[in-house]
Design goal:
This protein has 380 residues and is of the alpha+beta class. It has three domains: 2-69, 3-Layer(aba) Sandwich (MutS, DNA mismatch repair protein, domain I); 163-219, 5' to 3' exonuclease, C-terminal subdomain (DNA polymerase, domain 1, Orthogonal Bundle), CATH 1.10.150; 235-378, 2-Layer Sandwich (Dna Ligase, domain 1), CATH 3.30.1490.100. It contains 15 helices and twelve strands. It has helices at residues 6-14, 39-42, 52-58, 69-84, 106-109, 112-127, 139-146, 162-166, 179-187, 193-197, 201-208, 210-219, 249-269, 302-313, 349-368, and strands spanning 2-3, 23-26, 34-37, 63-66, 90-94, 97-100, 131-135, 154-156, 235-246, 272-283, 288-299, 323-335. The strands form four sheets. A four-stranded antiparallel β-sheet has the order 9-12-10-11, with helices on one face. A three-stranded mixed β-sheet has the order 1-7-8. Strand 10 and strand 11 form a beta hairpin. The radius of gyration is 24 Å and the shape is globular. The relative contact order is 0.08.
């Protein structure tokens, strides 16, 4: 199941006046990239990961909006709850896309096509958004099928029609085939997935290693991966690309504080703590560095993350070289409560007060939207 132009669709849902217009959601107009574009905008050649300045040139009359991740996650949660009423085996691919194993649902809910229709109807009824479905005997084929008749599509690929479905498709439809891989395959006279299936596997292995064998199997529709409901989250992070290169250290500290608060909020939402803090810096010449530190105890407080990042900042050239991007992430995650706990009487008073304050602030931001309450230094 793959939501249709999810970010722009949520924007239209919240502001019906945008319906039928080219809506582009992304970063800053000068330095950002497109996160998603409505189908009206795609007619102008706009696509995700494209530079915003390019998108503005292609579609000057477009409506350019910032990413509202809090709102998208809110809607995504409702959608995934709907998915799980049809099968417990739901594997998230992204905020707006998931695999569902419905092999055990047929007796209760009907054929695979009927189930897909029911899911689509529920999503529209309960969220006002459309979702496209791809129904197939494997994840690889289902993924391709879900993108086949967008928007609001439903494509069925039965086991005995897999080859007929895949063979005519261009090779860039296949997972993992980017520009470089496509170029090598074109030199082997491979233009379609059917062409790839006819290349001897030893040639593909010689060119691509183990990935060559994997591509050979996928080209024949052979994909035995199960739908895995849960993935362990290994890190949480946020980053920001600035509209102008940043030279001022104090401004960098403010940006790091904002990013640290966003990361800590997401950690508390997921009831996780972390011991490793990483600061990412991309200079104006696109040289990227990371600096990390591992703490003795796991934390989920924004100020503590910020403090660790400020220490890491000393080992960068911020203030000496223009900075294009800053990022803050945490790893070595632990479920909240598994870290060594002290009784209330043993806890440091300051730590206990910070925890209580975070709980109060989170409840306000949950109710009225993230960033309703924030540090005074970030108000400007």
């Amino acid at each position: 199941m793959d939501m249709d132009a999810f970010y722009p669709s949520v924007e239209v849902l919240d502001d019906p006046a945008l319906k039928g217009k080219p809506v582009i959601v992304g970063g800053s107009r000068k330095r950002g990239v497109v996160a998603s574009a409505s189908y009206e905008a795609r007619k102008f050649g706009i696509h995700s990961a494209q530079q915003m300045v390019t998108a503005m040139r292609l579609c000057p009359e477009g409506i350019f909006l910032p990413v509202r991740m809090f709102r998208y996650k809110e809607i995504s949660k409702k959608i995934f709850e709907i998915f799980r009423t049809f099968s417990p085996l739901v594997e998230p691919v992204s905020i707006d896309e998931a695999f569902l194993d419905i092999s055990g649902s047929a007796r209760l809910l009907g054929s695979s096509k009927e189930i897909a229709k029911k899911i689509k109807d529920r999503v529209v009824k309960e969220t006002g958004l459309t979702v496209s479905a791809g129904v197939a005997p494997s994840k690889f084929v289902a993924k391709i099928a879900s993108d086949f008749e967008k928007p609001d599509g439903l494509t069925m690929v039965f086991p005995d029609h897999v080859s007929a479905f895949l063979n005519p498709l261009t090779i860039d439809r296949m997972w993992g085939v980017g520009k470089a891989t496509k170029q090598v395959l074109n030199h082997l006279n491979v233009q379609t997935i059917g062409d790839l299936s006819r290349v001897p596997v030893n040639i593909l292995e010689r060119r691509f290693g183990r990935q060559g064998r994997k591509m050979h199997l996928l080209s024949m529709g052979m994909d035995d991966r199960d739908v895995v409901p849960f993935h362990e989250i290994k890190s949480v992070g946020h980053e920001e690309t600035f509209s102008k290169d940043m030279l001022d250290v104090d401004q960098a500290r403010k940006a790091i504080l904002s990013l640290s608060n966003k990361v800590s909020y997401r950690m508390r939402q997921g009831r996780t703590t972390a011991r490793t803090i990483t600061l990412k810096v991309k200079y104006s010449d696109f040289v990227r560095i990371t600096r990390s530190t591992t703490l003795l105890k796991a934390i989920d407080d924004g100020l503590e993350i910020y403090s660790a990042c400020c220490d890491l900042l000393e080992n960068t050239l911020i203030g000496q070289r223009p900075v294009r991007l800053l990022g803050v992430s945490v790893s070595h995650l632990e479920p909240r409560g598994t870290e060594s706990q002290m009784s209330l009487f043993q806890q440091e008073r300051g730590s206990q007060k910070r925890s209580e304050l975070n709980t109060a602030l989170d409840s306000i931001n949950d109710k009225f939207g993230y960033d309703t309450v924030r540090p005074g230094t970030l108000l400007e």
